[in-house]
Amino acid sequence: MTFSSTQIRVFVLAYLTYLGFFVSRSPYSLVKTTLLKSWEPFNGEDGWLTIGMLDTAFLIAYAAGLFIFGFLCEKFESLYVLVMGCLSSGVTTIFYGLADFWDVHSYWYFMMMRIACGFAEATGWPTLIKMMDLYFSKEERLDFIMVAFGSCKFAGTVTGSILSSFCQVFGTDSWGYPFIWCGLVIMTVGIVDFFFLPPTKGQAAETQPLLSDPAPLPDSDTTPKNQSESDPAKTKPDNGPVKTKSASDPAPSSNSVSSQEASKDAGEGETKTLNVFLRALQLPGIIDYSIHLFFIKLGVYVIVYWLPAWLETLTIQGTGIDYQLACYLNAVWGLGGVIGTLLLGLIVQQTKLYGVCSFIVSVIAGAVVLVTFWYSGIAGTLMSVFIVLILLLGLTQNAPYALSSAGMPSVVNKLTSTEDTKLVGMATGTANQRGLFIAHEVLCECS
Question: How high is the pLDDT of residue 430?
């Protein structure tokens, strides 16, 4: 299968963009221990609770933002929404780090920055998946494309962890520098997207052969027509002569016509929204997919936001794990996610057993989690063995997540007609579809 230059450009830029979003998220988990030790208001007895509430606020805002920006993508150019989100995410991340230099200790300052960042980050997934949906056909998305795209999350974790560790390598011990550098990364990516990422409207019409096949139109030779539609002249009224409008009949006013049309449109809009939601719930695999992704995210997000802080509480071979080593181990976990995602994607591409493969790897991931936590607490722990366990943890835990969030929606697409594909919700990533899974997203993001 060959791809056009436009498709390659869309894939590379979309991959780097969502990688940039995860780069900007990395410092929040990496500096937790530093804040808990030496920065008010997090260094008190309830420091773990207060800093955890920031993550909860971020994820609630993120879940709500998916719903809001998902619908905005249908009304406005998705590229502009994406660029706005990249710049806003960078600004809020930088302002979070500037609290170190401005000596800010207000809890509500950190809370507002996290909420604003959550809304900004929510622009990434709906817009980028919509672009992938527009510029790649259904068969191409099933052919490993979306699973490979899902690895960008963990590649962003690797990049953000290494970038954050360099801040200490070069003598910048302040905890604010990782936020500034990572914020600049996502802002740079947004500027690059503005100039080089093709739009979803206007020019996107030139790539119509890359889109999914439209719904077939009725065949004029085989579809029966009503005689009154084909030849009105031959139609004879059964109930007497047709009443004609006389000149004396009053003409309806323009205001009444407009109000009637507006009321009709509003009623049709509400009915259509409800019908879309109900029809989406009836599609094959939608409920199963949502429940599966809920539990996958539940496990992954605990590790994403608390792995570095947990690592800095450990002592391996008689030496405590410091900030820099925790960054490197976090990068190893992300590297395992990239490797696992690509390997699992290749396996399911050959076997087509998406659910079975995801289930088996998820069970293995649960065992690896238990072994990793058990091994970290025994005497004589070897660093080399611990690194291998962290790599396996990322490989087995992140691969089903990427497959579920990016690959399995394409399988759901395959089970439905072209008309129903537009109702699948998060499975295809278009704006109105994303809103269908808002209840599931809220539960996942707040877990």
Answer: 35
CA–CA distance, 312 with 326 (Å, rounded to integer): 6
Residue with tokens 């706005």: 84
Of 118, 116, 86, 90, nearest in space to 13 by CA: 86
Distance CA 55, CA 67 (A): 19
Angle between helix axes 78-102 and 107-121 (nearest 10 degrees) is 160
Distance CA 181, CA 74 (A): 32
Instruction: List all residues 6 or more positions away from 375 whose beta carbon is below 8 Å from its beta carbon.
Output: 381, 385, 386, 389
Q: Rg (Cα) of the chain, in Å, rounded?
A: 26
**C-alpha distances out from residue 374 to 299, 301, 371, 389, 432, Å:** 17, 20, 5, 11, 44
* CA-closest candidate to residue 13, choices 198, 234, 201, 240: 198
Q: What is the pTM of this model?
A: 0.77
User: What Cα–Cα distance (Å) separates residue 194 from each residue in 16, 73, 187, 235, 330?
Assistant: 13, 16, 11, 58, 31
Percent of the chain with pLDDT over 70: 68
**Strand ranges in 138-257 using DSSP code E only, listed in sequence order:** none
Choose among 56, 190, 42: nearest CA to 115: 56
Residue range 42-64: average pLDDT? 89
pLDDT-based confidence at residue 286 (cuts at 50, 70, 90) = low
Residue 307 CA to residue 425 CA, distance in Å, equals 31
